[in-house]
Amino acid sequence: EEGKVRMRFAPGPSGPLHIGHSRAVVLNDEYVKMYKGVFILRLEDTNPRNILSEAYEMIKEDVQWLGTKWHEFYIQSDRMEIYYEHARKLLEIGKAYICTEDPETWRKKKVHGGEIPERDLPPEVQLEKWDKMLEGEYEEGEAVFVVKTDLNHPNPAVRDFVGFRIIKDTPHPRTGDKYIVYPTYNFAVAIDDHLMGVTHVLRGKDHLVNTMRQEYIYDHFGWKKPFFYHYGLVSMEDVILKTTTIKEGIKRGEYIGWNDPRLGTLRALAKRGIRPEAIRKYWLDVGLKDVDIKFSWDILYSYNRELIDREANRYFFVWDPVEVEIKGSGTYLAKIPKHPNDPSRGFREYKVTLPAKIYITKSDWNGLSEGETFRLKDLFNVTRRNNYLEFAGNDLSIIKKGAKILHWLIEGLPMIVIKPNGEKYEGIVEKYIEESLGKVVQLERFGYCRVEKGERGKIIGFFTHP
């Protein structure tokens, strides 16, 4: 119903968002827009051991970059007293208990049906133990708050689950050591979703057990449940997404930061020149299918290509360059459009007076046979003679006959291109590329890159895609 839909995106601030998170952002945002509803951004930071302080701001920036606006914003660590209040209520009505048994023993009893004596102690005893937890009288692992479910539930993971645990060894980056008893994911989420009026929860099938657990909390309080929908999982290959792996890599100096082009973070994709509109289109096409799928980088790249091609100026980049002499006489002008479909952007112009030395890519040079005639793109034809080239006129008909067209440079700026798989290509690039710093360009016969200027004037290209 229009105006009544309330949905949320609720990541933990362990790091910035990656391509996997973007699915939930986009789908929730699109449904909210469709029904003129409310988009809630909630940061779930009740595990102080897994928080990156900078991530609070980074996540907000990432959500905005995706083109999503939130209407309400919450941070769970601001809401600790609310969780405590609801914990107390559950203990009072006999729907939770404090467990001081050895955790492994308790787990085994749940799975195999053993007696859990503490489960049936009266509320006043439970509340006393709860107060002791809050006052720090128990150490970590000595006591947990447990939500009662069904000990005969067919899925052992749903039987009685931990709602609060003690964490003393890590101060919280926002609240310090004010709290030592923290709600678990399932407890805090159920309370928040109800109090924030969330009507629809869209998430992956990996949350099915969490949904079952959270529904018990709704039932215990007599609350109306939101509509839960679980979409299929997406497997992603050839990309680094795991926050702990990235954190360690940054510490070791292996990655330049969260935007290192080898990573799958949204910042890394932005640095490479992937557009948020392409990501949005990809997830809208995938939709809410309940089947598991494999993420297709090729499809994302094709959507991105449609967006960037008309804006990307063209330049020659000669990687692994070889200097070769062209023998002949006369002066020739190469007038190459910055964009083949938009002459108004101007041209790259080079005057070549023969004999002259040019640079071409080593693999191109090695691929030429003795006596082979080919075209230097937008210049003229040449024939390979052993270790030099010979001017061979300007007859364009050789192209129709299958002659190669190779790019070249007479001079250039030093450049390095970094690919997502870590491969690096070094060479020289046209001086005109300086007009396109900070933008995506097409390096002819190589691919699209977003370009920046690095140390000592070197141009750095972050490979976008072919």
**Regions with little confidence, pLDDT below 50 for 5+ residues:** none
Number of domains: 3
Say how many strands there are.
24
CATH superfamily of the largest domain: HUPs
How helix-rich are the residues, as a percent range?
Answer: 25-40%
CATH class value of the largest domain: Alpha Beta
Mean pLDDT: 96
Assign the structural class, choosing from mainly alpha, mainly beta, alpha/beta, alpha+beta, or little secondary structure.
alpha/beta
Main pleated sheet: 7 strands, mixed
Question: Could you explain the architecture of this structure?
Answer:
It is a single chain. This protein folds into three domains: 6-76 and 188-285, 3-Layer(aba) Sandwich (Rossmann fold), CATH 3.40.50; 80-183, Glutamyl-tRNA Synthetase, domain 3 (Alpha-Beta Complex), CATH 3.90.800.10; 312-466, Ribosomal Protein L25, Chain P (Beta Barrel). The chain has helices at residues 19-34, 55-65, 80-92, 103-112, 123-134, 185-195, 208-221, 243-252, 266-272, 276-286, 297-308, 362-366, 397-400; strands spanning 6-9, 38-43, 72-75, 96-99, 144-147, 161-166, 181-183, 200-204, 227-231, 234-235, 293-294, 314-315, 317-319, 321-337, 347-361, 373-376, 380-385, 388-391, 405-406, 413-418, 424-429, 440-443, 447-453, 459-465. The strands form six sheets. Strands 12-22-23-24-20-21-13 form a seven-stranded mixed sheet. Strands 15-14-18-17-16-19 form a six-stranded mixed sheet. Strands 4-5-6-7 form a four-stranded antiparallel sheet. Helix 10 packs across helix 11. The chain is built from 13 helices and 24 strands. With 466 residues, the chain is α/β, with parallel strands linked by helices.
